[in-house]
Every structure is written in structure tokens, then in C-alpha cells.
Fold:
Amino acid sequence: MNPYNRRVGVALVVALVVTLLSACGKGGDTAGGNVGGNPGRGASNELLIVGYDREPDTMNRYATHILEDIESCIVEGLVVADEHMGVVPLLASAVPTVENGGVVLRADGGMDVTWKLRPGVRWHDGVAHTSADVKFTVDAINKGDWKPESVDGFDRIASVDTPDSLTAVVHYREVYAPYRWQFVRGTLPRHKLAGRDLNTANDYNRAPLGTGPYRLAEWKTGEYILLERAPDYWRGDSLPHIRQILFKFLTNTTTRINQLKSGEVHMVALVPWDKVRELRDVAALRLNQVVGNGYEHVSLNQKRFAPFADVRVRQALSHAVDRELIVNTLLDSLVTIVNGPIQPLSPAYEPNVRRYAHDPAAARALLEAAGWKAGTDGVRVKDGTRLSFTLITQAGFAIRENVAQTLQQAFREVGAEAKVQLVDGTSISALWFNGNFDAMLHWWQQGADPEITLFFAGDRAPPAGRNINFLSDTALTALLYRSDRTVVESERNELLKTAQRRVADLAPEIPLYNTSKIDAIPKEMQGFTGNPTNAGPFWNVHAWRIAP
Amino acid sequence: MTQPRISQSRAALLAIAVLVAAAILAPFIAPYAADALDLANRRGAPSMAHPFGTDELGRDLLTRVLFGARVSLAIGLISALVSVLIGLCVGAIAGAAGGWIDELLMRATDAMLCIPRLPLLMMLAATVQPSVPMLVLLVGLVSWMETARAVRADVQSIRQRDYIAAARAVGASAPRIVARHVIPGVLPVVAVASTLAVGRGILLESALSFFGVGVQPPTPSWGNMLYQAQTTMTSEPWLAVFPGLMIFLTVLACNAIGDSVGRTRSR
Amino acid sequence: MMRLVGRRLVQAVPLLLVVSLLLFTVLHLVPGGPLSAYLENPNVRPEDIARLRVSMGLDRPLPVQYLSWLAAFVQGDWGYSYADGRPVMDRLVERVPASLELIGAAVVAALLAAVPAGVYAAVKPRVDRITGIAAVAGISLPVFWFALLLQLGFAGLLGWLPSSGRSGFGDRGLADRLSHLVLPATVLAAALASAWSRYLRRAMRETMGAPFIGAARARGVSERGLLWHHALFNALPVFTTVVLLDVSMLASGAVVTESIFAWPGVGSLFVDSLARRDYAVLMAFLMCGSVAVVTLTLVADALVLWLDPRTREAA
Structure:
């Protein structure tokens, strides 16, 4: 064979080998490859596969920027919010209150909260969970360079005493009503993290040490996290029932729902409302719905778009929207209309607030009275200014895009022009954080505590808080701060109810609907309740089991 | 083999002409208004009243496809223009000047060709969050390299031609040579490059819009209609089929034209 | 010959420098630059941002920043991902095997389709007509549309194949892996096969008209032998470079395909990082993609030089 042909032959063989080798790939064989269990379609107590919408950035509950579903299976808080938004002791033996002496108001205006820890709880490495861990957590957050995402209230803590291994006394500088939720994210293990720089403690951030029903077995980046049952769980050896939980990262919603339908994943939490009808007929699934603790609404920035400073304009826009139509068509009646920031499930909820029914005639009358006359192109004008503003909302949410366009049409009917602008998720927080928007369609997802000072107090406009309406009402602000400093729950709720009535009269924003939470779970699963708060549906994962 | 080839390109030209006409006349021929919502008629399958069906908000899909054509075709055509103009300049200067100018320009061209085009465009679009005109510019800015290379090669070969030497011998000035010989000489290459660039531009825009970083809803474009249809693929497949079909047919026509122009050119 | 390869190697360096300069400029076009992710976090205070700006060296003049960025990059320090704080190199490298697997499978499939199609299209008019139409269709097809249609058809409606992912959990058998590979590889292979079959057809037609073929025919070599041994072998070197170049450019197509099929390779990493504005990852992806193109171009050139002595004289 001539040398030319030989070379071609060699080249071909090399190419073929290289291609085949790369096609075989390293196959992603892993240390945890011996995960057996039932590879078939159904869920079982051996393995539950969850389709999860994103890969966690870190497993550290204090540092993560997203929901803590996976983390909460491993790291438990001192308390947790149950399905009724009540506070339930978890690693604490009881919730301290004024009535049971756990909360003492000091003469100097501060307060002391005494946490009694549940005995017999051990970290997964066998070391006992003690009050030293509580103290360590507070010190780690308040001192030093570590500035994690979720530190509400910690800055009001002056110090922590630990008279014995199961008692932690937290000294607050001032009365802080949401004290119950202070340690909902749990504690950091002192014996593991003392003296370390928490920004770079990647061993903990990738595989946290916890006390919960599960521990991390494997984190295959880009693909999944596998949890396995932790031995010697303090609730008893028979719990949790399900031995392994696999969280598959499926960021694309369509992919996630398709895998749910085909049985490649068994469960998906927070199914988008526009996907629910696809799942109703799937025999293997049950759809669990709970009223959520969040609400979708349109924030009206009074500072940036001056016409919004007139309450009549805001009320007119509220009347312009046909919320029933939106809920019944775009949202398949899966959510309920609400009229304020505190949701029906909360003990502080006030149903008797002013409501703005769909009434375009009333809207037009209000705008006329406020001096906005109809212009030539259908958009109202006053002193040379057109009633034209930009309505922003997050891109990538089909429902939001649809609602925004429906709102646009509704506003047009009363003579206001809303230009819809979709902004991606990362940029939109910068916009509202700096108050750079006219109107925004979005939701707040709240914790179980009914505090709304952050959203409506006059001095909590960005960057000091989330009053992105830039509402400034002295009466309301005073009410809200008083409620923050009222530790007796019944009194606090009364103040909050008054506040809600005031908010409705002022109409700083247009509340639309409550964000109900729909989870798709295997039909045979028992013990699942869902959770309206950001505690997430995995709050009671230890109690789940797949009935045979 | 000439018969099928010519009729193929004629069909393609006709298709493009029809599309462009339909796009321009959209406000007049569309059965419904551009943004008419009809929440009572959501997700309707194709029917007599709505030949392409309706979408999530009850908007007529045929109407949206027609208005989307305006955006997608405009972006495709104008970005092609931009990219061909840039490519023509770069290629002509490089081919004519030679030497270090040629080296520099070709290095730049090669460098741009190395960078993965769609990811680069996606990153630019995601960060700049462009309006439609800006989008046209961005797409044009990443598509000129093929034209530049082709024009340069052509200019270089034209320079060697006998008739150029003859013209120079007769005393014709450089601009006159360029105008009378070089430009007509590169026109075929530019023509092919243009048609291919239109197809490429439409594909790039639709890819960007598909990932949510191109044309933003509610402004319709074929790409972002596909992006919105993604979530309802299994239950309302027509929402994905028709816009994608339009992209496919348009790009197919462009490529067919470019193909046959390239083939019938004598070399 | 080695001198020629050496010269090409030397030419590659300024090319990569220009690429790095272009990408660095793009990085700073971003509003907020590398700090943008922090600007959006309401809990990060202005003094923290100022501190970060200094520690990231953003207060130094741009040329200095460029040089230090370049130096770091060359040494393998690609920064840390905003998403999980891990080194970017780790995040990219661990996804490479999956992408290679997909690309390898697509190349194999495309070659299996394109080579016979291109070869026969060169000599049989009917095959030429069919493959011509198919090829033009193949390169006109929007990748994401094709992917969605396949997903809808084979996974959604027919249920024959899994809709996404690389493998079903717990079952890593070959059949399972292959079934996950089919759809995404088909999407990639379609575009490749279309381009390659057309190229091969053209190359084969030119070669079949060459004098040496006529001479071989006169010697009595069969038509089949002419086609497959003489003509194809002759066209192979340049065809290989075309293949290599197209593979190096697969970064774009892979991004779309991996994202739609949730294939855990570098392409889907890019799309996820895009949503989070994780610029360190995005930049590393673009740089590595460019380096891959330059490297494969070099390999392709060297291959042609080695295989086809005629080009050496011309070079």
C-alpha cells in the first residue's frame, strides 16, 4: 500500500477510536452508583424521585438565595411552620411565649427569650446538639465577615447565654415580635465550624451537618442530589419511612412536567398553575393544593411616576381590573382573589377591608375627578402629562406575561396606557431594589410571621426595606411599628387588622390573587400536607410514606 | 439538470416575495387586530374562525404569525444588510490593500469566527437587553465574517484578472476601476452571501427569542412565539408548529435561492 | 512540514490574544460588570460592594485588569462561579464528558448518514435530488424547533423514548443510556449530516471528473472501486478538516440541544449560567470554545498537510 493510503488509513482509525471513546464517555459512574431500589416507574419507600426546578447554590440554609426544600430535610430549625401557618417546636422542646415565661420583657426596653432544647438530639456525626450551637450561630452571624442572605432579627440580638447544655437565653436589645422564627433555619454545628471562615467552608456548604431525617449521600453537580435516611433520627428508628430521596435538577418547566407525566420523576412541588390541567388526568398522581402565604399584586411606585401619588388614580386603576376574569380564565380558578398583603390563613387576617370591584365606569369617574381628561389617542392627559407608564414583570413566567397583557388591556379601557416590559429574573431585583420602575407585577412570598412593616412603613423605602410603593402615611407607619413591638399575639393581631384596613383605603398597590401552592405527589403517598409558607412542602418529610 | 434547479429557485423567490408582501400588508390582511385578547376563546384548536388556532390569551395565531413576520423578516433582512455591508467593507479593503492591513483584518475575522456565535450573541443580548433595532445591530455584528472572507477572496482574484491590468494600462483611475470592474465582479458573491445571511439572521433572532433574550413579548416574533409555546407543546401543538414552520420555510427559501445563485454562477 | 505546523502554531497565539481581548471587552460591556450579581442582592450593602470592587481589582485601569485577567486565565484560574462559589474550572470540566458523549454520538450518526448519501449523490441523479432537498432542509431547520418536535413526537405522543436527561436513575445499562442519547444526538446529527453530505457530493463530483479516475477506469478498476477507494480516499483529507471544523463549531448547536433535552453537559451549563448572569462561567465557556476552535483548526490543517503532499507545496 502506498504511503499516502496508509496515512489516510491510520488517520481514519485514530479518528474512529477517538470518536468512539468520547461517545462512550466516562459514563458518570459515581461512588454512589450502588443506589439500587426500584428502577421502575413507581415511587416506593425505597426511593422517591423529586423533579426540582433548580440546583441549589449552597446547602447552607442561612446563605442560600433560594428556597430551602432540600436543606430542610437535613438541617432542622428550632421551630417550623406547619400546614396551618402555626409555629411548631422542632429542635426546641417548646415555643417560648410571654404566657409560659419563656419571654421576659426587660425594664430597659429589651427582652429575653429562653429556648429550651429537646433532649436526646444528636448531630449526624453523633455529637450532641446543645445550646452552644445556638450561641455559635448567633455569634457567627453577628460578628466576623460572614454576611449570609437571611439574617433578619439577628442584628437585634445583643448576646446569648447558655446556663446549661439545653438552655439558651437570647438577649434582644428591643422588643422583637417575630422572635419565634428567629431560629427557623436551624443552628450551625459549633464543633465542626468553630474558628473557620464560613465563606469558604465548602465542605459544610456542599454537605451540611444536620440533625434531620436525611443526610446528603451524593451531590452530582448539574444532575441531582441524593439524600439517604440518617441513622438514629431523634424521632425514632422507624422514621423516616422513605429510605432515599433523589432531587433531579430540571430547570426547564416543560421538561419537568413531561418527566412527571411519564413517571421519570414521582413528585414535583409548586406546579405552575398553567400546567395543572395537564396533570389532572394522570392516574399515578394526586394534586395537593394549599392556600399560599403570598400574593400576586401590582406595585405602584409613587415616587417615580408622580400620577400614582394621587390616591384617586390608584383606586381608579384598582377598579379597572377584572380580577374574576383573570382568575377564572388565565388561572383556571386555581387561586383565590385577595384584597391585602396578609393572607387568609394567617391569624392576623382581616377580611373586612375595602374592596375594589371591577367597575370601569367608577374608574373613569375617579380619573375625571382627579383632573385626567380623555386625550385624542384614548390616553388621558393632565397638565400636559399623559397617563402612560411602564409595567414590568419577570420574564419566563407564562402566566405573568399573560396577566400583564390582560392588565394592559384593562387599563387601556379606562384611559391609562401601560407599556408591558419583560425583565429577566436577575435584572428585575436590581430594578425594584433601587426603585427604578413605574409599576411592577410580582408576588411577595412571605414567612409565617405576619410582619408587613418592611413593605408599608414610610421609612422602609428601598434600600432600607421593601416599601417599593414609596408609600408614606404617618398613621400607618406608627401602627406598624407598634405591632412590631407588641409581643402578645392577640394584641398584635388587632393592630395588624387595623393596619390592613388602612392599607386597603390607601390602595398603594393592586392586590390580585393569593398564590396557592399546588404540589403533584404520588397517589399512594400518605402523610403529605403541603405548606403555605416558604418552609416548603418538605417540612414534614419524615412522616411521608408510600402505601403499598 | 438546469430545469429543476431554476424552478426550485423560482419557487423560493416567489415564497419570499409572498412572505414579505404578507408581512408588509399585515395590518390590512390580518383577520383580527394585533393585540386583541379574547379570554373566552383561549387555546382554541385550528378552526374556520381561527385557521391557525388561538393562543393562551385567545389571540388569533394567524394574526400573530403575520405580525410576527414583520419583526422576524425585518430583523433577518436588515441584519443581513448590516452584516453584508460590514463584510463587504472588511473583505474589499483586505483584498485590495493586501499587506499588514489584510493580515490585521483577517486576524480579526478569524478571531470572530473562533468565538461560538450563538452563545456570544446570547450573552450580549442577555446583558444589553436590546430593543429591536439594537438586536438587528447585534445579529449583524456577529454575521459578517463569512461575507468578508468570500469578498476578500473574490477581490484578490479579480485583481489578477487581465481586464484589470488592461484598464490600468489604458490609464483608468483607481475609483473608476473599482466602480466599473471590481464592484460588479463581487456582486455575485455578495448576492449569495446576502441571501444566506438573511436565513442566518432569522435563525439567530429566533434562537435568541426562544431563550427569552431576543424580541420580548408582547411584541410578536416567530422566535418568541415558539418560546411561549414551549410550555403548551403537548396540549396545543399548533402554537409551536406554525411559527416554527414559518421560520423553517423562510430560511429554506433563502438557502435555496442562495444555493442556486451560487450554482448558476460561472467560475 | 513541521515548520509549516510550527508556523501555524505561532499564528494561533495572536489569534487567541485577539479573541481574549474581544471577550474581555464584552465582559465589561455588561452593566455592572463582574459585580452585577452582587448589585442585585438587597442584602449586600454599598460598603460591601466597594470592598468587593477593590478586592476584585476593578478599580485599576482597564489594561492592567485585562493583563491580570489574561494571566489568571492562562494559569487555569478562571474565577469562582456566582452560583455556588466553586471554581469555574471545576464546574466546566465536570460537564465535559457528557458533552463529548453527545457530540461523539452525533458525529458517528452524522457520518453514517452523510458519507453514503454524499457518495451516491455524486453519481446517481435520483439520490442526488432527494439528498439535495433533504440537505437544504436540514440546514434550514431551526435547531430548537426540530428538538421540540422530536421531543413532542417521540417522547410526548408516542412515548417511545425518554424526553430528557442522560440516564434514568438507578438503571445505567447501555440500552437506557442509548435511549436517552437518541433524540439529542439526532438533532445535532441532522444539521451536520446535511452540510457534510452536500460537501462530500461536491468534492466527489469534482474528483470523479479528474484525470486519474479516468486512467484508473481505463485500467479496469470497477466503478464501485473507483467510487469508494479512489475518489473517496482522495476527497477524505479535506473532508476530515470540514468535519473537524464543524465539530469545533458545535458549541452553538450543543447549547440549544443540551438545554432542551436537559443533557448535563457544558451547553446546558451555559444556558443555566446565562439566566443567573454567572459571568465567570460564561466567559470561561466562550474562551474555551474559542480555544477549541483554534486547536481543532490547527489539527485539521496539520492533518491535511500530512495526508496530502500536494498542499505542502502550495502552502
